[in-house]
TrEMBL record:
This is DUF4352 domain-containing protein. Pfam families: DUF4352. It comes from Thermomonospora curvata (strain ATCC 19995 / DSM 43183 / JCM 3096 / KCTC 9072 / NBRC 15933 / NCIMB 10081 / Henssen B9). Keywords: Signal. PROSITE patterns: PROKAR_LIPOPROTEIN. Residues 70-182 form the DUF4352 domain.
Amino acid sequence: MPEVSERLLRRAVKCVVAGAAVVLVAACGSQEEARRAAPAPARPIQEIGGVYDASPTPAPFPNPTLPQVQVGETGRAGDLELSVEEAKAATTARKLFSGVHRAQGRFVIVPVTMKNLGKEPFSMLEFMEATLTDVSGATYNQAREVASDQSIRGTSNFNWEINPSSKGKVVLVFDLPKEVQPSFITVEGIATIRF
């Protein structure tokens, strides 16, 4: 019997679990729960000089237990109201004070506006740990320095903490090879943002 790599085995288990969760939600849950758990149709990423189709092929399933917000929509994730207006692609991004960051491939830039509906302050630093999964299932970490610069730029009183009933904005930035097709972003324990 051929030996199966541990990574391939973990990936197969994740696919089976995610598929079972979608079937269970669809069979037992409401139509709204089934819609959130099912993969969304592709949303284009605005490319400077054109439109980049984010996911023309079937994508891996995001974690069905996390609230999901589609790019272009507003949704609720626990005590947060998240608004994800767009996803843009660019080859450069301005630094905080002067100069530019240059992408190794291209930056995928996703601004997220949030309102804290809870009773305790919320730290937006949790969004700096976000990961992006492409249509093949590969995972990418954020370009944190670029994301931090983009989040702080243009504000006179930026604060990583959002007090109750207050709003804040964070910009997620991923430096991806040009051929990579994004599927979704996971902010572990908070939400999934689908393209």
